[in-house]
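Final report, Chapter 2: Outcomes

The project's central promise was a pipeline that accepts a single protein chain and returns its three-dimensional structure in a standardized token representation, suitable for archiving and comparison. That pipeline is now operational. To close this chapter, we reproduce one record exactly as it appears in the project archive, with the input sequence first and the structure output second.
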Amino acid sequence: MKYLTALTSILAFGNVAAFAPSSASRHASTQLYNKPAGHDVRSDGVAKEMDPEELKIQTALAEHQQNAPKLGFPTDVRTLVQYNHGFAVMSTISKSNPGFPGGSVVGFAPDELGRPIFIFSGMSSHTQDLLADPKCSLTIASKEFKGAADGRVNLMGEVTLLKQDEKEAAKAAYLAKHPGAFWVDFGDFNWFRMDEIVSVRFVGGFARAGSVTPEEYAEAKPDPVSAFGPAIASHMNDDHMSSTIAMVAHAIPGLEVSEAVITSVDSLGMYVKCTRTPRASDQPQQFKIRLPFPRKIEDRKDVKNVIVEMTRAAAASAAPEPAAAAAATG
């Protein structure tokens, strides 16, 4: 399994050397300006010593994130594809403009193996491109995608016409994702599927990227809790953000955030986009953290119970000790 992973913390933003092309690559060099890989950060050239308390907080955050349970890349990828809104960007090899890629926003639905199913008009440019050369890629953003901190998947493979005996199953899967797709019965529309997936690349946000093999992708199953995760996240963000802020502070002592937006919920925990102004700074930072559940979740009711437990634990830890409270009121 080819993984390129790093801690999802504010410590990780400045260094992405892990994502540099391997020197053993069989392709021509893609390095720009003979500079080492990484992000340039402008400064006055003077190294600034970090506040000891801030260093302590960031170290605790990094350790917490390293140990936080996660689904794993294959399940993450398969889950994102399954519960996406059903639209993605397809890049084809242009028939009308040889040598250039063609891009189209297309509807799709995954089958039981995660292979994207499409129904295309014979008049569409991407249909003509695929009939001439079936190689293409499909870029799928997570349902809650709003920016670089959110997940996306790129599938590369070959898209070909389905056989007659496969069309009814494809139609059922497509209509489950797109119940209003009345065009599925139009005579000039044809069923396609990405049968041969050769590459699966995943970006889960800042400092979290990599790839899984086609075999790992095919064997992975979507996380069941993620199917209703967006509804839970929306409810928490709209009505109980103060509870999420408290849970973050309880999980990582000293980490005080001004905003905590849940971006996804799965059977092992939540991803939370936090806003915080570090000590000795007046510039707020945004970063995503993993907030794990105390146990694996099996159903919707269990999610509610666990979040209530976590909220109560956070409130209890934030409450002053009895002696201290008595002294403060005495």
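Archive annotation: The chain has nine helices and twelve strands.
This record, like all others produced under the grant, will remain available to the consortium after the project formally closes.
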